[in-house]
């Protein structure tokens, strides 16, 4: 039985039309595929928008003008019924890179005339054949680094253009076995229960081993970086992150879905915490800061194997009165 074919087809058609459109035609595509009451959530400096004209004016037209000959290099596509709601809503998730030639300034970032990739993940809620909500999260600092900037003082893990899933099987154009999706959701929920509060009481590496393979890969955002194995993940991200923050709130998700071996979720925000230990070179602060996050996961067997994570670090810095985009002075030499 077809579960999510119509929703996936809508999103694939939307991407084909959007990626082929230029200039003023972009708003016509947005209007054609979205519901009359439409909500678009994105990272700083775009935030939440409800008018397709503004979405086109603020993001798509400037981005497409700056990044010419754009092509979408999609690594992940799956869909599912929202675990967080009782309305039976279906969401479609995709992840990959928007690649093109960086030919004009964007957000104050100076062009290189070379190819760049904007790392992205996106959730779409489909209702009655239209896109009713979108969460479009993208790693602007990652693009800045490709253009020669150093937006953060240091990062604890590795910087690289990040590949998709190791099996290269995450483009679920055909619907996956629902039983596999349920296994993945069960694993994700267990992981959230174990790690989402930082209150398990176990040594960190033992806590991680409950739901993660030892040779896990964590593909983190620019500013933190990517890390491999439980031991290095604990040393290069999870341990330093927990040491940097206190008073972490509970986890709040708008959507959480799974299909086959893949799952993902996002929040607005996902959680709040106070950076009382300092973070990414910033001094300690008692301010409670919100974190906007998309997580994409791959399950292998009964544990998680890979995780791609998108965190709005520009928004985090902005909450602490540091405007990274506003302070751009040109690429380093």
UniProtKB/TrEMBL annotation:
Gene3D superfamilies: 3.10.450.50. It holds the Pfam family SnoaL. It comes from the Bacteria. InterPro entries: Cyclase_SnoaL-like, NTF2-like_dom_sf. SUPFAM superfamilies: NTF2-like. GO terms for biological process: polyketide metabolic process. PANTHER family: ESTER CYCLASE (PTHR38436:SF1), POLYKETIDE CYCLASE SNOAL-LIKE DOMAIN (PTHR38436). This is SnoaL-like domain protein. It comes from Planktotalea frisia.
């Amino acid at each position: 039985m077809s579960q999510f074919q119509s929703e996936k087809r809508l999103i694939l058609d939307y991407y084909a039309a959007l990626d082929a459109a230029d200039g003023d035609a972009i708003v016509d595509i947005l209007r054609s595929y979205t519901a009359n009451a439409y909500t678009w959530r994105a990272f700083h400096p775009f935030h939440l928008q409800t008018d397709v004209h503004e979405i086109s004016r603020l993001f798509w037209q400037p981005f497409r003008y700056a990044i010419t000959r754009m092509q979408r290099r999609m690594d992940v596509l799956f869909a599912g019924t929202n675990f967080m709601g009782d309305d039976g809503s279906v969401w479609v998730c995709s992840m990959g890179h928007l690649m093109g030639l960086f030919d004009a300034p964007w957000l104050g970032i100076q062009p290189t005339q070379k190819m760049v990739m904007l790392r992205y993940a996106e959730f779409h809620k489909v209702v009655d054949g239209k896109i009713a909500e979108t969460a479009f999260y993208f790693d602007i600092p990652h693009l800045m680094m490709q253009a020669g900037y150093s937006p953060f003082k240091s990062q604890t893990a590795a910087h690289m253009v990040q590949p998709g899933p190791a099996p290269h099987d995450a483009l679920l154009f055909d619907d996956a076995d629902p039983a596999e999706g349920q296994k993945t959701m069960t694993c994700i929920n267990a992981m959230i229960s174990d790690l989402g509060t930082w209150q398990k009481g176990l040594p960190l590496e033992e806590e991680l081993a409950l739901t993660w393979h030892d040779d896990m890969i964590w593909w983190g955002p620019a500013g933190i970086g990517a890390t491999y194995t439980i031991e290095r993940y604990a040393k290069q991200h999870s341990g330093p992150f927990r040491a940097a923050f206190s008073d972490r709130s509970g986890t709040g998700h708008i959507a959480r879905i799974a299909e086959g071996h893949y799952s993902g979720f996002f929040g607005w925000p996902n959680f709040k915490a106070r950076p009382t230990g300092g973070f990414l070179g910033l001094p300690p602060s008692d301010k409670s800061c919100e974190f906007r996050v998309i997580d994409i996961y791959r399950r292998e067997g009964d544990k998680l194997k890979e995780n791609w994570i998108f965190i709005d670090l520009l928004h985090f810095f902005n909450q602490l009165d540091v405007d990274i985009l506003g302070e751009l002075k040109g690429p380093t030499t």
